[in-house]
Amino acid sequence: MKKDILVIKLGGQFVLNNAWISSFMKALTNLLEKGYLVVIVHGGGPQADDMQKKLGIPVKKINGRRITDKDTLMVVKMIYKGTINTELVTEALKHQIPAIGLSGIDAKLALVSRRPKKKITNQKTGNTETVDFCYVGDIETINKDLLVYLLEKNYVPIIACLGVDQNGQIYNINADSLATAIACKIKANKLIFITNVNGVQKTNGSSQYFHKLKLDEAKNMIAKKKITDGMIPKIENVETAIKNGIKKVQIVGAFHKKDQWLEAFINQSYGTVIYGGNYE
Q: Is the pTM of this model over 0.90?
């Protein structure tokens, strides 16, 4: 495939906003007309949190990462693939986009292994804890052949963040990690995280954001607790992407106007662009 490939991760907060989704799909139509190939990966954290609360299932997280026990796994299967994926594919079809809904389970798209217990320093308490993430999977392999086949046929895969192990056990996967693994495997030209903030904040709670940020600077901000919560796994995945040959990774908020989306995707005019070496 010689066309430029974009891997775009949609955060759960983004999916809650119908106006954002509609404008995004209009821009996606234009991207496809310009010859881009696009893979979409989505999360659904806020929706899963909401459903867990409704069902009386405790929400447990550490440093922005969800602990997925048996009851939580039931919820994420229902929300990620059952609700969000179906609705995103339907919205794409309304815009004449040839979308196909998948999760990492389909054809072992994301083959995973259970995450081992880990000693983690809790950023909120400062204490080191041994954490069992339960049914959270770490990605072993990505089924590149399936994605290449779909892209060559001009389909737009929309992928929910679930995975499966060799024994058929289903696992929750961090959506940023899944998008990163896919981007690395298919050698995407761009990896873009769309989130509920406009980029990496210069200070906690600030309305000002970095437009360009070196990876080392971002990691230093984590160490100094200037980057917290859900932004931490994003930066960890940015590091993985850059080490695997993706020169720049973009973290960007959402837009109501199609032209702003296109400027963000094509020219990286908005959000924070994190890079390893020299910024081009």
A: yes
